[in-house]
Structure formats: structure tokens, C-alpha cells
Amino acid sequence: MARPALSREEVLDTAAALVRAHGPDGLTMRGLAAALGTAVTSIYWHVGNRESLLDALAERTVTDLGAIRPHGEDPAERIASVAHALRRALRERPHLVAMVHERGLTERMFLPAHRALVREAHAAGLRGERAAELVRAVAFQVVGYVLVERNRERAPVQSPADQELWDAETADADPPLARALAAPVEADRLFAASVRALVTGLLAGATAPAAGDIGDKPDTGDGSVGRGPYSQ
């Protein structure tokens, strides 16, 4: 049976899967052709050479992260939802995100999430420097947390381990604390707690704007915010 006609999207999907599994260095045109069951010349026809292919993968990663949309009943919930969605997106595609960074597209990749955070900061009543502080603090929290997670996952076995470190004096003074610190880190729970505390602190004292203000403008889906300073 003849193979169905190859499409550009199929090439990019397969290439992205190879990068996720083996990193950019594991993506070769011959390996990609083998995975697709086609000739290398066919891949060149659809996406050009390897550098063009990597550029296309980087651009698609930028687009994928632009699909993040907030959800929740109030600005605090929606800000937290952006943080959780951004963390998932970064963890799902670390090699692709690294490619984006190497091509100088990091700020553009994060821009849609930043704009979503701006809308929610405005909806909560924050303006100017306080709104900017919220956007950057949440973004730094997410990126920093993901980097720590990845470093912990790739770290060699530690000796002494946490269980050995948190006994003796700490166990005598506060046994539940010693047991908790000796237990494995619950990364999802810890991230949720840290984001909740961060957002609560940043929104403290904020006053929601009156109906019709910029914060109440509907999400147009293109990153624009009415006629405010973040419009394009």
C-alpha cells in the first residue's frame, strides 16, 4: 500500500517528538526520514534543511505557548492558572524551549502569558509598577521553579540524604517538621502553595476597577487589551 502524502505538519510533529526524546542533537535528517518512512529529499521539500527545520520547530513552540488562556472565577485564580499552565508547557518541552532561547525568541515566547497576566493585574486593580511587579514575579517564579525541578531530577544521588539530615536536633524540637522535610518533595503541591502565597501578597490592597475599565475588557484572544498601553 502506498504511503499517504507527507505533510509539513507531520514532519514537524515527528521532528518535535524526536527532539523531546533525544534533544536537538538527536534530530538528524536521516533519522527523521526513517521515522517518517520517507526519503530525506521529501523532508527537504517540506521544511528545507536542518537549520530551517529547527527554526520552524522554535516558531511552533512560540505559537504553542501563546495558546495559554487563564481560567477561574477571579483574578487571583486566573493568575494562578496562567502560572500552572506555563509550568506545564515548559516541563513538557524543555529541549524545544531551549531551542527557542538559543534563537533569541524567549521574550516573544513568553509575551502572550505576560499579556494574560497584565489583563488579570488590571482586573484586580493593579496599575503601573505594581502590575509590572506582578507579571515579572509570577514569570520568575514559574521559570525558576522549573529550573530547580529539572536540576533536582538530573542531580546524582545525594549523601547524606534529606532523611539523614533532618533528624537528631530537629526531630527532638519539632518531630512533624523533621518528618516533612525528610519526605520526598511534592512538587505540584509545593508549586501551588508558592504561587498562591505569591499572588495573595502581590494583590494585597488592590482595588478592582469599576465596570467598563480596561480590566473588564473581554479577552480577544490576540493579546490585546482594549486601547491600553499593551495594545498592538
TrEMBL record:
Domain HTH tetR-type: 5-65
UniProt superkingdom: Bacteria
DNA-binding region range list: 28-47
Coiled-coil intervals: none
Matches recorded under Pfam families: TetR_C_1, TetR_N
Presence of keyword Transcription regulation: yes
Keyword DNA-binding listed: yes
Sorted UniProt keywords: DNA-binding, Repressor, Transcription, Transcription regulation
Disordered: annotated span: 208-232
Entries under InterPro entries matching the protein: Homeodomain-like_sf (IPR009057), HTH-type_TetR-like_transc_reg (IPR050109), HTH_TetR (IPR001647), Repressor_TetR_C (IPR004111), Tet_transcr_reg_TetR (IPR003012), Tet_transcr_reg_TetR-rel_C_sf (IPR036271)
Protein name: TetR family transcriptional regulator
Lineage: Bacteria, Bacillati, Actinomycetota, Actinomycetes, Kitasatosporales
